[in-house]
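Regression test case RT-17, inverse folding.

Input:
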């Protein structure tokens, strides 16, 4: 009897502890942020002849185009942690391109849609100020709209992409500089569209935007 009386309180304590653990774990699970699965990464189809020539074969230009592609996809689905984006685009740029969708949502507007990567016409590639960096100059069209239609006006402006090569070999856009003196008045950047065409975002709350964050491959 003495043993039975002694074991019963221990049993009740164990059950109570187990219930508390389940309750706490359930509460934590309910509060844990769960990232929505990203839709399949779209293909890109050039409209007309795909860009070619020596400058298009430059690895820095190819890396810049991959970044522009990933930037547009990330903005369309409001997920700025996409592996394709992180591998091609530095943290500073990832944070910057997340702001337009966040501002749209804060103003109770549906985020704009990008029909494809921002059209870009490279003009010059030169080494950067330190080894493992480069500068890609060219003419860029910023296109985005509520409908995602290709705009009639494709006015381009001058930009310089500062590029970096990480220890793992990734070549990325690390920052973007406006070049107002670069004449892009006659520039006709090649166009590419996403396939399938992007759908309007269903994100209506800023907390559902997957924000950019530092990763292991980002320089400290």
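Golden output:
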């Amino acid at each position: 009897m003495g043993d039975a009386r002694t074991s019963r309180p221990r049993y009740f304590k164990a059950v109570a502890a187990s219930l508390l653990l389940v309750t706490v774990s359930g509460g934590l699970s309910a509060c844990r942020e769960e990232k929505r699965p990203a839709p399949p990464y779209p293909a890109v189809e050039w409209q007309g002849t795909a860009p070619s020539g020596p400058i298009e074969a430059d690895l820095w230009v190819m890396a810049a185009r991959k970044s522009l592609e990933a930037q547009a996809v990330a903005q369309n689905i409001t997920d700025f942690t996409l592996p394709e984006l992180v591998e091609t685009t530095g943290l500073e740029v990832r944070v910057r391109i997340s702001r337009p969708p966040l501002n749209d949502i804060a103003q109770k507007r549906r985020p704009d849609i990008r029909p494809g990567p921002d059209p870009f016409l490279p003009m010059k590639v030169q080494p950067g100020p330190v080894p493992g960096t480069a500068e890609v100059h060219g003419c860029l069209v910023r296109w985005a709209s509520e409908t995602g239609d290709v705009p009639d006006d494709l006015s381009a402006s001058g930009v310089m992409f500062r590029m970096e090569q990480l220890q793992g070999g990734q070549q990325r856009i690390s920052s973007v500089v406006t070049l107002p003196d670069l004449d892009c008045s006659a520039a006709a950047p090649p166009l590419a569209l996403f396939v399938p065409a992007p759908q309007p975002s269903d994100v209506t709350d800023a907390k559902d935007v997957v924000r950019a964050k530092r990763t292991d491959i980002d320089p400290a």
